[in-house]
Amino acid sequence: MANSNLTEAKRAKNDEFYTQYHDIEKEITAYIEYNPDVFRGKTVLLPCDDPEWSNFTRFFAQNFDRLGLKKLISTSYAANSKKYKGGYQPSLFEVNDPQYDAYKTKKHGKIFILDHDKSGDGHIDVDDLEWHYLDGDGDFKSDEIRKLRDEADMIITNPPFSLFREFLAWLIEADKQFVIIGNMNAITYKEVFPLIKDNKLWLGATGNGNDMVFGVPKGAEVAESDRQKAARMGYVGDFTRLGNSCWFTTLDHGKRHHPIVLMSMEENLKYSKHKELKGKESYDQYDNYDAIEVPFTDAIPSDYDGVMGVPISFLDKYSPDQFDIMGMCENEDLYKLKTKVYTTAECKQAYFAKFEKKGTYDLNASGVVFRGGLLEKVYQRVLIKHKRPTK
Ligand SMILES: C[S@@+](CC[C@H](N)C(=O)[O-])C[C@H]1O[C@@H](n2cnc3c(N)ncnc32)[C@H](O)[C@@H]1O
């Protein structure tokens, strides 16, 4: 019980990680470089954002004219509804406004709208934002926010980490374009992977697989090692870092169309920088898939025309012009690619052979190779095939 409370408290805190301005700028710039008109005439909704200090709001408001937006809508979640209650203080901007209401500010979400030059200075920017309290608390699942979602062309945010699955389902059901931050592990979710496989969703252009630094509420407890890592990256104070965040999007970008430069199978076996491959006679063949095991993305052989199992980090380099995604070892039931299902007795036997004690090796949960006479499970693998294998 104490442990699950701790986990719950950690998840609640992770819901209050705030995205850095330059991370947003880098990512959005990649979409504009690919298509300068990608945001032109569009209504963009930024839900799950506290517009007074969200860098998403700041970035899109400041660049409203340059991007050619039609309308920007930004909403926030009421302080009392947040799982993590610490660190909340209404800003001076709000407190000094005649609309300010000490009760409402805790119980209601807020909405900021930008669609015309209110100040009359000839530009539409941060100075023209108009705000009011929402009727409800700003929950993205509420009818009030759902209506805003339906009005928008695109939805962009870093949603609460603990509600990522629900948030994605909420986007997909509305069939909207989006750019959101999530955790790399989400790739393997059964709700997410089929969308990636069918090229309806992909990873963003920047930051994937690198440390991303987030702001945290004042005084929030974060792991000291993460705080120090953030500090080493130049963020001192109320910051932390996550090593496995990434962008998920439906907007196209140039990186998706850069093929990976690869060596042939023979060259890899001769010259690979990976000791696991260099000098071997061949790539391992799975015992339970008609596919070869490729333990590193840069070791994908350019000339192999069968199915290959590659690490999920491959998706950061994936170009749909170069490869087809066939499935994933762990989601084998979705794609029926497995050629063998092990019995419980075989799983137990494999465990005993490997660890010399009793137990069960869940061989059916992944790709399996024969190594040194033993059945070995490999890490999570995406199964891919070259569109056009080349020498
Ligand atoms: C990971 S933070 C990111 C905040 C902001 N988008 C950013 O990137 O700086 C997620 C935000 O969503 C809010 N939130 C949590 N549950 C929510 C819900 N059900 N509906 C709307 N927002 C929610 C949290 O309070 C938090 O402010």
What does this protein structure show overall?
The protein is α+β, with helices and mostly antiparallel strands and 391 residues long. It folds into two domains: 4-256, no CATH class; 259-386, no CATH class. The chain contains 13 helices and 17 strands. A hairpin with a 2-residue loop joins strand 15 and strand 16. It is elongated. The protein starts with a helix and ends in a 5-residue tail after the last strand. The model has no long low-confidence stretch (mean pLDDT 91). S-adenosylmethionine is lined by residues 15-19, 47-50, 54-56, 77, 82, 138-140, 157-161, 163.
Short description:
This protein is of the alpha+beta class and 391 residues long.
Radius of gyration: 24 Å
* Percentage of residues in helical conformation: 25-40%
Strand order of the largest sheet: 5-4-3-2-6-7-11-8
Instruction: Report the strand count.
Output: 17
Structural class: alpha+beta
H/E order of the elements? HEHEHHEHHEEHEHEHEEHEEHEEEHHEEE
Bound molecules: S-adenosylmethionine
Q: What is the CA-CA span between the terminal residues?
A: 58 Å
What oligomeric state best describes the polypeptide chains here? single chain
Flag low-confidence runs.
Answer: none
Helical element count? 13
Strand content: 15-25%
Largest sheet: 8 strands, mixed
